[in-house]
Amino acid sequence: MDLIVGGPPCTPFSKSGYWIDYKRAGLDPDRYLLDHYVRFVKELKPRAFIMENVHALAYDNHNRSSLDALLESLEDLGYAIGRKVLVAAEFGVPQVRQRLFILGSRLGTPAFPTETHAGGNERRQLGCFFPRAQHDRPAVWSWNAYGRCSAYPPTIHDN
Hints:
Elements: E1 3-6, H1 21-24, H2 33-44, E2 48-54, H3 64-76, E3 80-87, E4 98-105, E5 117-118, H4 122-126, E6 137-138, H5 142-147
Parallel strand pairs: 1-2, 5-6
Antiparallel strand pairs: 2-4, 3-4
Helix pairs in contact: 2-3
């Protein structure tokens, strides 16, 4: 098998869980679904894998032990690991959404793709996001994506 791509459920690590005592204490039983991802990698032995999850999994808080255990387990299986928080808008998706990607390869250190899009968005304009990258393609706004569909914009008929 060449590649496994997956994203174990993220609810145990999402920011919404910070306000729930048992999640903040690391007691959400769904956090063990990361172990099942590792089990699939171990049993299927792909050359590489891509795992996606909420960026909060990488926070230095109660999530850290789960991330560290995940990375250690995957490294113990013989994978070189890379991890990075990527922003969907910087790859042409009309959504400012941060996601943690963990890449693993038996063939050497995995490389992350280079951002393909740049442009203003409300967080960048406020200066509280990431440094603005310079690319040939402008940011994609929701209207640009929806505007390509024949049903958009909806036609309003006055009868």
